[in-house]
Specification:
Oligomer: single chain
Shape: globular
Structural class: alpha+beta
CATH architecture: Roll
Number of strands: 6
Strand order of the largest sheet: 4-3-2-1-6-5
CATH class: Mainly Beta
Distance between the termini: 10 Å
Low-confidence stretches: 118-123
Strand content: 25-35%
Mean pLDDT: 82
Number of domains: 1
Largest sheet: 6 strands, mixed
Number of helices: 3
Length: 123
């Protein structure tokens, strides 16, 4: 049930092919870091955010569906999650995400339908 979690919302204003590395990422209640890596692949779009000292230098992976708006002029990405929701997400392991379907599903489920943050809405 996480297939839509890995796609950008049509209302986010993201244009495929735009390099988002270095963009600041804003949760609904404050800054969480900067984009270190991202993917625009169909059904596998995401952001990897370097949180810096906020949560001890941890990287977090955010499915594209969490993006509510991209502001190219200000180089900011706004996500529709709180800082605590992002901090409490399953640990991100770069190597595991790339090759482990179960891990990919676990991350997607946290943010998507049926997960604690899905709220029953279609993402």
């Amino acid at each position: 049930m996480t297939e839509h979690v890995w796609s950008y919302k049509s209302t986010a204003g993201h244009l495929a092919g735009t390099d988002l590395r270095g963009y600041k990422v804003e949760a609904v209640d404050g800054s969480i870091g900067k984009v270190d890596k991202h993917s625009d692949e169909v059904a596998d779009a995401y952001l990897v955010v370097d949180t810096g000292p906020w949560i001890f230098g941890k990287e977090v992976l955010l499915p594209a569906s969490t993006v509510s708006r991209v502001d190219v002029d200000e180089r900011k990405i706004y996500v529709d999650r709180t800082r605590d929701q992002i901090k409490d997400a399953p640990e991100f392991y770069r190597d595991k995400h790339l090759g482990d379907a179960d891990y990919h599903e676990q991350l997607g489920s946290y943010y998507g339908l049926g997960g604690p943050l899905g709220g029953g809405r279609i993402l």
